[in-house]
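(Deposited chain)
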Amino acid sequence: MVYMVLILIYNTRDKTVINNYYNINSSMIHWINAELYHNLMIDFVNEDSIFFVYQLIDANPYNYASNGIEIFNFKIDGSLNYRYTFNDYQPNLRREINGVTATRDGGVIVDVSSTINYDISNSWLLRYSHNGNLDLLNIETKEKETINLYPNPAKNYVCVDIEATNFSKAEIELFDMQGKLVKRAKLSAMQGNRVDVSNLNAGAYTYNISLNGKTISGKVIIQ
Protein backbone atom coordinates (compact mmCIF):
# COMPACT_ATOMS: atom_id res chain seq x y z
CA MET A 1 0.00 0.00 0.00
CA VAL A 2 1.19 3.52 -0.75
CA TYR A 3 0.73 6.34 1.75
CA MET A 4 1.28 10.05 1.29
CA VAL A 5 2.99 12.65 3.45
CA LEU A 6 2.36 16.40 3.19
CA ILE A 7 5.40 18.59 3.83
CA LEU A 8 4.74 22.30 4.28
CA ILE A 9 7.66 24.66 3.66
CA TYR A 10 7.35 28.26 4.84
CA ASN A 11 9.60 30.78 3.11
CA THR A 12 10.30 33.48 5.69
CA ARG A 13 11.61 35.89 3.05
CA ASP A 14 8.66 35.74 0.69
CA LYS A 15 6.22 34.77 3.46
CA THR A 16 4.80 32.03 1.26
CA VAL A 17 3.88 28.41 2.03
CA ILE A 18 4.72 25.59 -0.38
CA ASN A 19 2.69 22.37 -0.16
CA ASN A 20 4.47 19.19 -1.26
CA TYR A 21 2.88 15.72 -1.31
CA TYR A 22 5.15 12.66 -1.47
CA ASN A 23 4.34 8.97 -1.74
CA ILE A 24 5.66 6.73 1.03
CA ASN A 25 6.06 3.00 0.35
CA SER A 26 5.68 0.95 3.51
CA SER A 27 5.87 -2.83 3.06
CA MET A 28 5.55 -3.59 6.79
CA ILE A 29 2.09 -2.11 7.28
CA HIS A 30 -0.55 -4.47 8.60
CA TRP A 31 -3.85 -2.83 9.37
CA ILE A 32 -3.00 0.52 10.93
CA ASN A 33 -1.68 3.37 8.78
CA ALA A 34 1.99 4.23 8.96
CA GLU A 35 2.79 7.46 10.80
CA LEU A 36 5.72 9.81 11.02
CA TYR A 37 7.03 9.37 14.54
CA HIS A 38 8.10 12.31 16.68
CA ASN A 39 11.72 13.49 16.11
CA LEU A 40 11.58 15.76 13.06
CA MET A 41 15.09 16.96 12.26
CA ILE A 42 16.16 19.84 9.98
CA ASP A 43 19.63 21.24 9.27
CA PHE A 44 21.60 22.89 6.48
CA VAL A 45 24.92 24.48 5.64
CA ASN A 46 24.02 25.58 2.13
CA GLU A 47 20.57 27.19 2.07
CA ASP A 48 19.92 25.51 -1.30
CA SER A 49 20.52 22.11 0.30
CA ILE A 50 18.19 21.81 3.30
CA PHE A 51 17.98 18.40 4.99
CA PHE A 52 14.79 17.11 6.58
CA VAL A 53 15.08 13.68 8.22
CA TYR A 54 12.52 11.45 9.94
CA GLN A 55 11.81 7.80 10.53
CA LEU A 56 8.87 5.79 9.30
CA ILE A 57 7.11 3.71 11.93
CA ASP A 58 4.84 0.72 11.54
CA ALA A 59 2.02 1.68 13.88
CA ASN A 60 0.87 -1.93 14.35
CA PRO A 61 0.79 -2.19 18.19
CA TYR A 62 1.99 -5.81 18.01
CA ASN A 63 4.99 -4.98 15.86
CA TYR A 64 5.91 -1.28 16.06
CA ALA A 65 9.10 -1.65 14.05
CA SER A 66 10.89 1.01 12.03
CA ASN A 67 10.20 1.16 8.31
CA GLY A 68 13.28 3.19 7.61
CA ILE A 69 14.99 6.53 7.94
CA GLU A 70 14.03 8.95 5.18
CA ILE A 71 16.23 11.85 4.09
CA PHE A 72 14.76 14.71 2.08
CA ASN A 73 16.93 17.45 0.57
CA PHE A 74 15.22 20.66 -0.56
CA LYS A 75 16.20 23.81 -2.42
CA ILE A 76 15.45 27.12 -0.73
CA ASP A 77 12.40 27.56 -2.99
CA GLY A 78 10.93 24.33 -1.62
CA SER A 79 11.60 22.15 -4.65
CA LEU A 80 13.07 18.72 -4.02
CA ASN A 81 16.73 18.01 -4.79
CA TYR A 82 16.49 14.32 -3.88
CA ARG A 83 15.25 11.86 -1.27
CA TYR A 84 16.81 8.72 0.14
CA THR A 85 15.44 5.95 2.38
CA PHE A 86 17.75 3.83 4.51
CA ASN A 87 16.49 0.66 6.20
CA ASP A 88 19.34 -1.82 5.87
CA TYR A 89 21.08 -1.80 9.26
CA GLN A 90 19.09 -3.57 12.00
CA PRO A 91 15.77 -3.21 10.13
CA ASN A 92 13.94 -5.33 12.70
CA LEU A 93 14.54 -2.85 15.51
CA ARG A 94 12.81 0.39 16.37
CA ARG A 95 15.04 3.46 15.96
CA GLU A 96 15.23 6.86 17.58
CA ILE A 97 16.72 9.79 15.68
CA ASN A 98 18.68 11.86 18.17
CA GLY A 99 20.11 14.52 15.90
CA VAL A 100 20.91 15.63 12.35
CA THR A 101 23.98 17.56 11.21
CA ALA A 102 24.51 18.85 7.67
CA THR A 103 28.17 18.73 6.55
CA ARG A 104 30.15 21.17 4.44
CA ASP A 105 30.70 18.58 1.70
CA GLY A 106 26.95 18.49 1.01
CA GLY A 107 26.15 15.42 3.09
CA VAL A 108 24.36 14.75 6.34
CA ILE A 109 25.12 12.82 9.55
CA VAL A 110 22.21 11.22 11.40
CA ASP A 111 22.60 10.17 15.05
CA VAL A 112 20.50 7.03 15.56
CA SER A 113 19.74 4.66 18.44
CA SER A 114 18.32 1.18 17.92
CA THR A 115 15.97 0.11 20.73
CA ILE A 116 14.43 -3.10 22.02
CA ASN A 117 11.38 -2.70 24.27
CA TYR A 118 12.21 1.03 24.57
CA ASP A 119 15.73 0.27 25.89
CA ILE A 120 18.71 1.36 23.77
CA SER A 121 20.35 -1.64 22.07
CA ASN A 122 23.15 0.35 20.45
CA SER A 123 23.85 3.76 18.95
CA TRP A 124 25.25 4.44 15.49
CA LEU A 125 25.90 7.22 13.01
CA LEU A 126 24.63 7.23 9.44
CA ARG A 127 26.57 9.53 7.14
CA TYR A 128 25.02 10.02 3.71
CA SER A 129 26.31 11.99 0.75
CA HIS A 130 24.47 12.12 -2.56
CA ASN A 131 27.70 11.67 -4.52
CA GLY A 132 27.83 7.99 -3.62
CA ASN A 133 29.39 7.95 -0.13
CA LEU A 134 27.60 6.13 2.67
CA ASP A 135 29.11 5.52 6.13
CA LEU A 136 27.98 3.48 9.13
CA LEU A 137 29.67 3.82 12.53
CA ASN A 138 28.71 1.75 15.56
CA ILE A 139 29.41 4.10 18.48
CA GLU A 140 29.78 1.30 21.04
CA THR A 141 32.12 -1.03 19.12
CA LYS A 142 33.71 1.71 16.92
CA GLU A 143 33.21 -0.56 13.89
CA LYS A 144 32.93 1.51 10.74
CA GLU A 145 31.91 0.76 7.18
CA THR A 146 32.28 3.30 4.38
CA ILE A 147 31.24 2.76 0.78
CA ASN A 148 32.23 5.00 -2.11
CA LEU A 149 30.70 4.08 -5.47
CA TYR A 150 31.85 6.13 -8.47
CA PRO A 151 31.55 7.50 -11.08
CA ASN A 152 27.89 8.33 -10.69
CA PRO A 153 26.52 8.71 -13.34
CA ALA A 154 28.49 5.82 -14.82
CA LYS A 155 28.87 4.51 -18.35
CA ASN A 156 30.83 1.28 -18.83
CA TYR A 157 31.85 0.52 -15.26
CA VAL A 158 31.53 1.56 -11.63
CA CYS A 159 34.27 1.47 -9.02
CA VAL A 160 33.65 0.60 -5.39
CA ASP A 161 36.04 1.59 -2.60
CA ILE A 162 35.53 0.17 0.87
CA GLU A 163 36.73 1.31 4.26
CA ALA A 164 35.96 -1.14 7.05
CA THR A 165 37.28 -1.95 10.50
CA ASN A 166 37.20 -5.65 9.60
CA PHE A 167 37.11 -6.70 5.94
CA SER A 168 37.27 -10.11 4.32
CA LYS A 169 34.98 -9.91 1.32
CA ALA A 170 31.93 -8.08 0.01
CA GLU A 171 29.40 -8.32 -2.79
CA ILE A 172 27.41 -5.86 -4.88
CA GLU A 173 23.99 -6.44 -6.42
CA LEU A 174 22.37 -4.10 -8.94
CA PHE A 175 18.59 -3.93 -9.43
CA ASP A 176 16.55 -2.17 -12.09
CA MET A 177 13.57 0.02 -11.17
CA GLN A 178 11.26 -3.02 -11.31
CA GLY A 179 13.34 -4.69 -8.61
CA LYS A 180 14.90 -7.27 -10.94
CA LEU A 181 18.44 -8.37 -10.12
CA VAL A 182 20.54 -7.50 -13.19
CA LYS A 183 24.11 -7.75 -11.88
CA ARG A 184 25.99 -9.46 -9.05
CA ALA A 185 29.73 -9.20 -8.49
CA LYS A 186 32.26 -10.02 -5.77
CA LEU A 187 34.27 -7.19 -4.21
CA SER A 188 37.53 -8.79 -3.19
CA ALA A 189 39.59 -5.70 -2.36
CA MET A 190 39.09 -2.60 -0.25
CA GLN A 191 40.12 -0.24 -3.04
CA GLY A 192 39.67 -0.22 -6.82
CA ASN A 193 36.92 -2.82 -7.24
CA ARG A 194 35.78 -2.36 -10.85
CA VAL A 195 32.35 -3.66 -11.90
CA ASP A 196 31.45 -3.91 -15.59
CA VAL A 197 28.03 -2.38 -16.34
CA SER A 198 28.46 -1.95 -20.11
CA ASN A 199 25.71 -4.48 -20.83
CA LEU A 200 23.09 -2.64 -18.77
CA ASN A 201 20.51 -0.35 -20.34
CA ALA A 202 20.71 3.34 -19.58
CA GLY A 203 18.67 4.33 -16.56
CA ALA A 204 18.51 4.38 -12.77
CA TYR A 205 19.49 1.37 -10.68
CA THR A 206 19.61 0.61 -6.98
CA TYR A 207 22.50 -1.28 -5.48
CA ASN A 208 22.99 -3.39 -2.37
CA ILE A 209 26.50 -3.92 -1.03
CA SER A 210 26.82 -6.71 1.53
CA LEU A 211 29.69 -6.12 3.96
CA ASN A 212 30.40 -7.56 7.40
CA GLY A 213 26.84 -8.80 7.84
CA LYS A 214 25.35 -5.43 6.88
CA THR A 215 23.74 -4.27 3.65
CA ILE A 216 24.40 -0.75 2.41
CA SER A 217 22.16 0.52 -0.37
CA GLY A 218 22.09 3.41 -2.79
CA LYS A 219 21.29 4.51 -6.34
CA VAL A 220 23.43 4.82 -9.43
CA ILE A 221 22.66 6.20 -12.90
CA ILE A 222 23.90 4.28 -15.95
CA GLN A 223 24.26 6.38 -19.08
User: Anything to note?
Assistant: The chain has no helices and 18 strands. The two ends are 32 Å apart (CA to CA). The longest strand covers residues 2-11.
